[in-house]
Each structure stands twice: as structure tokens, then as C-alpha cells.
Amino acid sequence: MIDTEVLDSGLGDADDDDFDTAEAYDSLLPDGRYTDREVSWLAFNQRVLELAEDPSLPVLERANFLAIFASNLDEFFMVRVAGLKRRIVTGLAVPTNVGRSPQDVLADISADAHALQLRHARAWAELVRPELADAGIELVSWLDLDENERAALYEYFQSQVFPVLMPLAVDPAHPFPYISGLSLNLAIRIRNAKTGRQEFARLKVPPMLPRFVAVPGGPGRSRYLALEALISENLRDLFPGMEILEHHTFRLTRNEDVVIEEDETENLIQALEAELLRRRFGPPIRLEITEDMDDVTLDLLLSELDITAQEVYRLPSPLDLRGLFDLGRIDRPELRYPAHVPTTATAFQPAEQNGRPDVFAAIRAGDVLVHHPYESFTTSVVAFLEQAARDPHVLAIKQTLYRTSGDSPIVEALIDAAENGKQVLALVEVKARFDEAANIVWARKLEKAGVHVVYGLVGLKTHCKLLHVIREEDGMLRSYSHIGTGNYNPKTSRMYEDFGLFTADEQVGRDLTRLFNELSGYAIEKKFKRLLVAPLHLRKGLLRQIDRERRNALAGKPAHIRIKVNSMVDEQIIDSLYRASQAGVRVDVWVRGICSLRTDLPGVSDSITVRSILGRYLEHSRIFAFHNNGDPQVFIGSADMMHRNLDRRVEALVRVVAPAHVKELIELFDTAMADTTSSWHLGADGVWTRHSVGEDGKPLVDLQELTMSRIQRRRRARSAR
User: Fold this and answer.
1) Beta-strand runs (E) in 34-144
2) In a domain, 10, yes or no
3) What does 485-520 look like in DSSP terms, one character per residue?
């Protein structure tokens, strides 16, 4: 018997014949049709930098974007550059979709990264720092201070800094010390006043102390001195009887990618803990130095760290502008974006003032689509889980956890549910990059509370965002489900733009039951009804949807593809979009970060438009919408168009079926793509151009501000009824 429900939804196994025609198009697609992913990533971080350079933005937000740029670039080197170098050194094949050698790609990365870091330093020195000073926030040098200020800071140095400093000498009895990744250090050359012998010492700037030290001053002034500058001016206290010849700041980046052969280990947690320990000692891949460092000191660092001149980045002081995150403590709201308090989604607002909403009743009344951070994560997702944890009719809760905050109410609710006697399953992805240690801690805490904790499938990361609640109602079991595009993390939910769908639909409930059984046991599920699941079905399902639009266009029917993702890299998906464009399908791609898709290929990408939006919130949701001859097929979920998401992760997209929700998602997408909306446009040679001002000289629409005001108006309209 044919499962017509599956076939009609477009989610079933595709007939191999469906793609025969598509494969014939490969010969018509040109070489060089992809932009290198690493070069494209650097272009993304340049867009972040352009926000820091924008004088129309509040100055403390611009400083924050400078810190984000620095943090992004650190991770890029620790993972992407480190991964490329490791594969080259070990002789492994290096994936590249641009037809060039990995060595050439690394050379391009080095050149682009050098240029960007210098531009980043100039943006701080010439644009943001002066504007901060005009607003009464100054980062000063030691020479800018008077005697009283120096005396006050010296007292702070003696009482708070000096006791935790650990100068390490380098001589025959003291080998060159280990330099930890991303630490800020002073390289110091000294001369013994008695013997005349020159020595070298390394001093680590304590990371647990504030990076910028407040200078005592009058009201209305905020003045700060960099911690490394304070230490540098008092080195004589550390080396009494020595002459300080040179001192320079430097910073090392190491390979911090984690590689685990899961099929060769008996205990994933133990193997991961061992690998995290090894991460601390990864090989160096970047050395940042101040522009005034002398050749003698640099040569010593190059020799001892075994690093090449190409990996050296000579920059103006101060290094490590991640420290600008510390300016977030300054209480100057007029120098930030206006405060925004998320609203409670209309469906989850209590019927009576000061009443407690019944989340289950709201979901039973119909699917609920919530848009974070404009609509509150706390009064939707957290409220749903907390109500489930205390509801005596709830029998079981199942949830995936990829990243969550250290004091997460999500984790506490799962613990409460287990202690209340419910069956609780938490699939904790301990391999979530840079959150591995935290996830191990929370996994063990959950286990101690009686939660069934599993770690997913061997060889796959579980990246999908799923929450499934089973409740007994009138002697029957009913499913309540949440499928999201973002992590179950209350902290990042205030900064990340994401969607979440709540539904009591039994098809979704059966899909999640099957999927969780597969994740926690040995079941291999072949069919889902409203879900597209990677790695077995998602790629195939999307290719079918894209090819359907291509066939409709060839038949003279209207055809339109809309895709919003964080990254667009996968060659098979990109080629399918090229083929759709060749057939006349309108293809709109809204991408935040990496995009290997090109828009400048005559006869291939003529119908493809690519936009990028960056701003106050990090665009994080994934939307896939297909015109389907007037019957739109729209999905949201966790997957980007990357090899790892489609082939090496468990991902899930859910089909949105409520007409109002379909309309909302498509309207949001079309507003983002409109020429009247501020965005970056992808053009020839992979160059992104910002369009923020119209031909009349007026600012274009800010999508995030528009969305904020639309949702606020929607809430006011309901309150008025």
C-alpha cells in the first residue's frame, strides 16, 4: 500500500528517476561556480566590521561589534584555519570546491585576514575610540595621567595585580614556558645590572582581572587604562635590580578543534575529556604582536613557538579587542540601542490579568509560531517546559540539548520533572564546539537527578532542536511538541533571531516519538510525515522540492524558491539552485554568513538574488519556502546548507501548515529581500555591498526594528480588544 500522505507532503523517498534530468544539467554548469568558504567567511566578518564603522549606530554598540569581530576571527583561526593546516600536514584530503590547492587557499586567507585585522585596528583607533572619548568614555595611556592618578593606579597594582603575576624567566635552568591559546602576554628583555647579561622573561596578563582598569576621576567621566599598560609601567617591581630593555605585548592562537574517532572509543565522555585536555596544547597557528616589537624579541618567539613569518600579525596596540566586551558594564543607555523588552506571544498571554496562562490549552487551540527575541523565550519555551514539569498529567518529556546556559531554567525544569516522577530523556550533545566541558557538567547533573541522558548517534552530532511532551488527557495520550531553529538557551535567545513552532498535531508527535527512539535506541526510521530529518532524508527532500520548482518553471507555471540560512556551502544544493535558475525559477537566498553560491554567472545564476542582514540581533533562523504552484510548502528548522548539517548531523525541519504562519514567514522573507530594506547584496566576484541608504538619501528600512514594531503593534491590538 502506498503512503499517499508521505508522498503528497514531498517528504518521502524520492524516485531515482526524478533526478535523471537534473543530473544531465551538470555538464551545463561551469567550473569555478563556487566561492571558497573560508574567503566567504572572512567577507562575512568584514560585514560585522562595517557595522562597527557605521557612524549612525550608537557608539557602545559599535565597540561591541569590534569585540564580536575579534571573537569571530579567533574562532575562525582556531577551527577553520587550524583544520586546513592539520589536514595539509597529515596528508589528508582537503575539501575545496574552488579548484585551487589548499596552500593557495591558506595564502589568500592570510592576506585577507592581515588586511582585515589592520582595518579592525584602524576602526578602533580612528573611529570608535575618538567617538567614545567625545561621549566621556576614554581609554588612556600612562602618559595621559597626572601624578595623583598614577599614584592611585599604582596602589591598585600593588594590592590587586602584583600578587597574582607570575613572571617566568627563560634561561638554561628555565625552558621557554608554555603559552596558552588566546592569552595576552608580555615579552620582556632585561639586563642584569651587575653582570650585564641579557635575559628574557614572559609575563601572562591575568585573565581573571578586568581588562580595563578604571582611572579615578570626577563625575561624568569614565577613563580606563589597559591592564597590560598598567603592568608594563610597573615592571621594575617584578624585576628589582634589573634594567628593563624592551617589553612588548603578544598573543598566540592555537589549534583548538576537537577530533574524536567515536567508533574507536568505548566511552565518549572520557575520550572527550582527554581531547579537551589535548586542545590546550594544540599547535600554534597565529601570533599577534604589537607593531613596535623589536626583531630580537620576535626572532626568539618565532624560534621557540615554531611559527612562520606568514603567521605573524603585527598590529597597533592594544591587542585582543575582545576586551571591548567589558565596556558593556558602563551604564550609559543613551549610547546603546533603545531597550527592547520581548513581548509574550499572543497565544500564550493569560486570559486574566496577573493570571497564569495554560500553555497546553493554547497549543491545543492551534499551532503557535513564536519569533524570538521579539517574542519571549521565557514565556513560551521555558513556560511550556516548566508547566510540563509540574503537571501531574504529564507522563514523559524528551528534549535535545545542544547548547544551554550555565544556570539554565531548562536544565532545572528537566530535573524537577524527573524528581516529580516523570520519565525524562535528555539528549545532550557533548560535542557542541567550545561548549563541551559545560555540557559534560550538565549531563552529569541531569544523570544524578534521575534523567535518562544519552549522547546521540555514533559519528553524528545531534543539532536538531526538539522538545516532546506526552500528556494523559481523558484516558488518552496526547503529544505536545516544540521544534525550533535555535538552541534551548535563555541567554542567547535574547540576542539570536529564531523561530519555534508549538503544535499538538499527532503527526508531529508520532514523528518525534520515532525520531527520539532512533536517537536513544537502535531504531532506524525510514519515514516521517511533517519532518525532514538529516542525515537520511533532509537533503533528498530539499532536492525534490527544488526540482519540483524547476519542473514547474519549465511547464510555464509560476515558480519561486526562498531559502534563509546561516551558511550556503553544499555543492549539490547549490547546483540544484543553479539548475532551477537556468529553468527560470526565481531563487531568493537570505544568508547571514558563508555563501559559496555565486550570482555573477551568465546563463546560470541570472534568476538568483542573495542578501545578507546583520544588526542588533544575530539572524539565526532557517526558513525554506517553495511556491509549489500556489500551494506553498514552508519549513523551519535547525539545518544550514553545509556538508556537516546534511550528512554528519541529526537535523530536523518541520513543515509549517497554518496559513497565517505560512503568510508570516513569507512576508518576513520578502521584506528582507526588498530593495527598500537595508542589507548587503552579493555581487560579482563574491563582493558584498552594503545598501543602507536609498536614492533619496534617507535610511532604508531596518528589518529588525520593523519586526519589533510589528509585533508590538500586534500585542497592543490584542490588548485593546
Assistant:
1) 137-140
2) no
3) SS-S-TTGGGTEEEEEEEE--HHHHHHHHHHHHHHH
Neighbouring CB atoms inside 10 A of 694's CB total 13
Residues of the chain where predicted confidence (pLDDT) is lower than 70: 1-27, 89-100, 171-174, 218-220, 257-281, 352-355, 404-407, 430-439, 456-458, 522-526, 715-721
Which of 335, 370, 401 represents a domain boundary (last residue)? Answer: 335
As annotated, the active-site residues are 463
User: What was the pLDDT predicted at 139?
Assistant: 94
- DSSP assigned state of 674: S
Report the predicted TM-score, pTM, of the whole model to 2 decimal places: 0.90
248 is in an annotated binding site: no
Among 325, 268, 312, 291, residue whose Cα is nearest residue 63:
325
Kind plus residue range of the DSSP H or E element containing 704: helix 703-720
433 among annotated binding-site residues:
yes
CA 697 to chain CA mean position, Å: 33
Give 266-293 pLDDT, tens digit per residue. Answer: 454 455 445 545 555 578 899 999 999 9
Q: Is 620 assigned to a binding site? A: yes
Indicate the residue among 527, 550, 582 that finishes a domain. 527
Residue 281 belongs to domain with CATH number: 3.30.1840.10
3-state secondary structure 151-174: HHHHHHHHHHHHHHCCCEEEECCE
Grid coordinates of 705: 526594528
Closest CA to 86 of 94, 96, 75: 94
pLDDT for the residue numbered 308 = 87
354 is in an annotated binding site: no
Tell whether 33 is covered by a domain.
Answer: no
Where does residue 336 rank: exposed (0-12), middle (13-18), buried (19+ CB within 10 A)? middle
Q: CATH number for the domain including 412?
A: 3.30.870.10
Pairing label, strands 284-290, 312-315: parallel
pLDDT at res. 1: 30
Q: Measured between alpha carbons, how far is 238 from 256 in angstroms, rounded to an integer?
A: 32
The reported pLDDT for the residue numbered 357 is 87
Q: Where does 407-530 have alpha helices with state H?
A: 409-419, 436-448, 506-520
Q: Tell me: do 468 and 568 sit in the same domain.
A: no
pLDDT at 210: 93
| Number of domains, the chain | 3
Residue 402 annotated as part of some ligand binding site: no
The Cα 673–Cα 701 span in angstroms is 11
Which domain, by its residues, includes 474?
Answer: 346-527
Whether residue 72 is annotated as binding a ligand: the answer is yes
Cell of 396: 514523559
- Give domain status of residue 104, yes or no: yes
